[in-house]
């Protein structure tokens, strides 16, 4: 055991000596994945007799930044993400010496727009969402010219919607939920506006900028990485809508209700079938160089990718995570438990 520990320490040459004494797994990243990772950590701690992993909710972008700082137990062992690692983040990891990284897709989640259960239920289209929240929109007076978003109420966006002030509480730019919302909801709605969609053929960078830029005039309120805080604010403010992962809707039924988007309700079934238009995959990433140095990493990964955890009848499904199909789950469990490294070509 002493020899093994010495070999492991050498593998992390350059790390501070005090950090090498760490015996608790360090996990950072997505606020959406946080509740799932927390349950797994607690189960792992109880069943293994090892310290329960320490988990911090830093947002997906913040998690990648910490994870990719380099190798050494003063850096995290695992980062959670509600979007896939970007090629630029993979390159940052490689540059800083975080060479071998295992990517694990853990399941699906939907991004919901919700309001208080005591407020009037709202049905939205992707186009409504884009026109309500984009920084620039086509001039409502006519023509293709883009202007600063003039819409103050949902009714101005769409006459069929309530005459209610546009007030949406959502995550900051460091959040994977924000990234996914911009890509799936905002850009999805953008494509329903012919003059903006036409930009894609002319200037793809401009198209992406217009489609994914959120207004900054107070209609969209950055409410931090704590999705539970957004839920609390919706309960107190019946005029506001909030953006967060489906699991928080599922865990707070009776307090909040999810808007239908393009006529589809956010449910376990519609997200797993991809009928719900704002659905995404969830991930975690493992730093292989820390395996064998910080005890328990392999055991934690094995627990997370066990059928009792992430299977259709598993305890994570009870928490609102939508499982992968059987064949994908089996393939991913094998990849995770063998700690197969990414090549970067996947991104």
Describe this structure in words.
- With 347 residues, this protein is an alpha/beta fold.
- The chain has helices spanning 2-11, 34-48, 60-67, 87-95, 126-133, 154-157, 176-190, 194-197, 199-202, 204-212, 227-236, 246-251, 268-272, 297-304, 307-310, 315-318, 326-337, and strands at 26-29, 54-55, 78-81, 101-116, 123-124, 136-138, 146-148, 168-170, 220-222, 241-245, 256-258, 260-261, 279-287.
- Strands 1, 2, 3, 4, 8, 9, 10, 11 and 13 form a 9-stranded mixed beta sheet that branches. A two-stranded parallel sheet has the order 5-12.
- Helix 2 (34-48) packs across helix 14, helix 5 (126-133) crosses helix 7 (176-190) and helix 7 (176-190) packs across helix 10.
- The two termini are 38 Å apart.
Summarize the structure.
The protein is of the alpha/beta class and 347 residues long. It has 17 helices and 13 strands.
List the helices and strands and how they pair.
Layout: H1 2-11, E1 26-29, H2 34-48, E2 54-55, H3 60-67, E3 78-81, H4 87-95, E4 101-116, E5 123-124, H5 126-133, E6 136-138, E7 146-148, H6 154-157, E8 168-170, H7 176-190, H8 194-197, H9 199-202, H10 204-212, E9 220-222, H11 227-236, E10 241-245, H12 246-251, E11 256-258, E12 260-261, H13 268-272, E13 279-287, H14 297-304, H15 307-310, H16 315-318, H17 326-337
Helix pairs in contact: 2-14, 5-7, 7-10
């Amino acid at each position: 055991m002493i020899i093994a520990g010495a070999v492991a320490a050498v593998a992390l040459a350059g790390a501070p000596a005090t950090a090498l004494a760490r015996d608790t797994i360090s996990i950072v990243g997505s606020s959406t994945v946080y509740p799932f990772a927390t349950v797994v950590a607690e189960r792992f701690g109880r069943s293994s007799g090892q310290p329960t992993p320490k988990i911090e909710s830093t947002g997906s972008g913040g998690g990648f930044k910490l994870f990719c700082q380099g190798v050494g137990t003063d850096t995290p062992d695992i980062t959670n993400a509600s979007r896939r690692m970007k090629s630029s983040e993979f390159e940052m990891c490689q540059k800083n010496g975080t060479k071998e990284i295992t990517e694990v897709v853990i399941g699906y989640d939907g991004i919901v727009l919700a309001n208080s259960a005591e407020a009037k239920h709202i049905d939205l289209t992707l186009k409504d969402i884009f026109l309500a929240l984009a920084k620039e929109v086509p001039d409502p007076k006519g023509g293709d010219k883009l202007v600063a978003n003039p819409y103050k109420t949902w009714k101005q966006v769409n006459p069929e919607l309530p005459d209610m002030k546009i007030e949406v509480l959502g995550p900051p730019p460091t959040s994977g939920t924000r990234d996914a919302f911009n890509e799936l909801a905002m850009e999805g709605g953008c494509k329903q506006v012919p003059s903006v969609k036409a930009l894609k053929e002319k200037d793809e960078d401009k198209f992406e900028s217009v489609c994914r830029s959120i207004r900054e005039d107070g209609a969209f309120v950055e409410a931090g990485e704590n999705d539970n805080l957004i839920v609390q604010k919706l309960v107190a403010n019946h005029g506001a809508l909030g953006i967060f992962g489906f699991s928080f809707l599922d865990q707070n039924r009776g307090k909040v209700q999810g808007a239908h988007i393009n006529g589809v309700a956010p449910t376990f079934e519609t997200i797993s079938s991809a009928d719900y238009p704002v659905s995404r995959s969830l991930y975690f990433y493992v730093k292989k160089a820390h395996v064998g140095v910080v005890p328990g990493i392999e055991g934690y990964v094995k627990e997370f990718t066990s059928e009792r955890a992430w299977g259709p009848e598993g305890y994570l499904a009870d928490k609102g995570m939508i499982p992968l199909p059987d064949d994908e789950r089996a393939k991913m469990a094998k990849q995770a438990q063998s700690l197969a490294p990414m090549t970067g070509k996947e991104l």
